[in-house]
Write a structure and sequence with these properties.
66% helix; mainly alpha
Length: 229
Amino acid sequence: MTNFLLAISAFLLAHVVPPAPPVRARLIALLGRRVYLTLYSFLSTLLLVWIIVAARQAPLIYLWYPAPWQALVPVIAMPFAFWFTAAGLAAKNRLSITFRRSGEGASQGTITAITRHPVLVGFLLWSLAHIPPNGDVVSLILFGGMGLLAFAGMPVLDRRARRRLGDAEWATVRAQTSGVPFLAIVEGRAHFYADRSVWLWTGLGLALYVWFLLQGHRLLIGVDPLAWL
């Protein structure tokens, strides 16, 4: 349990200190934005691997026992989580996490019509979907903590974007999207259209999901997600 708590603490620390505006600005000035994001993603992945390994070694203390229907929750939710994450990382987005950045006056990626934080929505779906079939204390800390981190990151990124863009431009860009998925479309403030990029990343996200479902989850995590079905 000690190793798991250390891994969780290191992961949370890595998502508090480097993203802090003074530290982040200094690192980007030193490394460049793309290198910073690449290294930060690599560090996050390493820490996540540490968490997974530590969680598998921690003692099992069940709060509820798994049932077959609970395994359906991530099976249904994860295609959307993969899609939001993959499409969000590839889309132009001035307001949230992405590997690309649209310049001033440039159009946003089409997925931002659905939500301005697609990557965080993907992580939130991933974390919440894995709580029902994992009723032990370690899993609840892991997935609950990740979900809270993703949810808390949304207003943090909103404040950062508002400072960077200024109140007037922030209001204009924000009016064309929403934090809650599909809300801006339902309210008529945004219009989603599937361009070639959307189809490409939809296909990639679904391909990754199928691989994880049939093989990847068992190979990387050590658990077959279809075992309870």
